[in-house]
Amino acid sequence: MRTAFPYARKPCNLSRPRPRQNSDGRRRREREYADYVSGRLSRLHRTAYLLCGDADRAEDIAQVTLTALYVNWKRAARADNLDGYVHRILVRRYLDDRRLRWSRVRLGDLPDVPAADEQSRLDDRDELLTALRALPRGQRAVVVLRYLSDLSVEQTAEALGRSVGNVKSQCSRGLATLRELMEAVPQERTRS
Predict the structure, then answer these.
(1) What is the Cα–Cα distance from 23 to 60, expressed in whole angstroms?
(2) Which of 35, 55, 60, 111 counts the highest number of beta carbons within 10 A?
């Protein structure tokens, strides 16, 4: 029998019931996910903030990371280094976010000036964040994961999908650049 559409699909069998998912297993996985996230959320948000330097974008990056983790939780839970797996997702989401045009648009006004007693501490933090933003993306990711998220060289390499030697060289170059940038800041303060 010939049809008018030679590539037409066969009708699907709707009478066959779909297999039910094991609800206990799903609940257990969701509980594991919730436990993992509740213990790591602030650290992920901090790492995202150190990568991008904006609290709102950091929140978005952390949320997208956790969504991707939830979707792939079965696979992620079997990973040898779950934190490295999550940091890899986080860095990739950060890099994806940097590629989007809307990430360069500022909406709204700048926040109010903080109190004077906090000003020196905030100046130091701002100088560090400015210096971090001046680093190339790869060096910034290595420095943030290695020193500000307290990952080992091996964990950082695994999180970024790079070799240990690459992480060491990127880290060395990034720290040298940070030192140069931070040494230039006091000289600029004395001039102004």
Answers:
(1) 30
(2) 60
